[in-house]
Amino acid sequence: MRPRRRNVTRSIAVHSYKGGTGKTTITANVAVALALKGRRVGVMDMDLEGPGLHVFFDLDPSQLRFTVNDVLAGVAPPEAACVRMSEKMNLNGGEIYYTPASVKVSEIMRTLKEGFELDTFENAIRRLQEKFGLHYLLIDTHPGIQHDTLLALGICDHQVVISRVDQQDIFGTGVLVEISSTMDKPVHLILNMIPPRIRESEVLKFARTLGAHFTVDMAGWLPFSEEVIGSLSKAILTLKMPRNPMSQRFRGLAEAIESFA
Length: 261
Ligand SMILES: Nc1ncnc2c1ncn2[C@@H]1O[C@H](COP(=O)(O)OP(=O)(O)OP(=O)(O)O)[C@@H](O)[C@H]1O
Ligand SMILES: [Mg+2]
What we know:
The structure is a single chain. The chain is an alpha/beta fold. It has one domain (10-258): Rossmann fold (3-Layer(aba) Sandwich), CATH 3.40.50.300. It has helices spanning 23-35, 53-57, 68-72, 86-89, 105-114, 118-132, 147-155, 167-182, 200-214, 226-230, 237-240, 245-258, and strands at residues 10-15, 40-46, 83-84, 95-99, 136-141, 158-163, 187-194, 217-223. An eight-stranded mixed beta sheet has the order 3-4-2-5-1-6-7-8, sandwiched between helices. Helix 1 (23-35) packs across helix 12 (245-258). The longest helix has 16 residues, at 167-182. The two termini are 22 Å apart. The chain binds adenosine-5'-triphosphate and magnesium ion. Residues 16, 19-25, 47, 50, 52, 143, 192-193, 222, 224-225, 228-229, 233 line the site of adenosine-5'-triphosphate.
């Protein structure tokens, strides 16, 4: 008889060195792709300086009682800042539990000024995992290597680094992977916004070279898509346009994430 697989959450930090690489877009689309497969998925906005997930989830965090900022300040339990999206999004039995970050300037400034304790953050993650029986917890982060982002990277089981093929990004990705490797966590690379003129064979060759160079797992790549940029971050393609080729690509990334060891 096969041993039963333990139901443990995989926590995954989605990160990039440079801004605007597609972290939030990929997080939202992959979260929905996983939920549509029946998974219970937590999504946390840890881009405390520039939150963006609420746009995809069509929620105004200033209308909510608590956000992740309150959780990090120790004034709210994590589940109180968590919004169950499944009914609104009609996820066919899957679940998304979304923890937004505050969009109020005063609160953003307070969190940045006061910071937070590693323990508080770690306990919040553990509590969400247990309370909602999560299969996955995706954490969207702020670009770069400041303190709160490094904490998120250090706590998660896996790090997904998003990079464009732009040389500036590639340099930063190298820096990130070097930092990540000191944390002893598996690092997975996703190349995004591949320009249409670059052929798939070239991308694959480039991806292999990059993967070998940085000793990271190449989790996948996405082309530049007019539909994605044209959606103005207001639509999650995997939900609204499941037949679109980009939705298929996002589902491919979800599968790659499911195969993380
Ligand atoms: N594959 C793609 N093709 C075309 N546009 C894309 C693609 N992926 C993301 N974008 C667009 O790039 C922009 C930045 O995406 P997104 O906000 O997801 O990046 P980010 O890494 O989260 O940015 P930030 O670092 O500011 O948080 C958005 O306009 C988004 O629609
Ligand atoms: Mg973002």
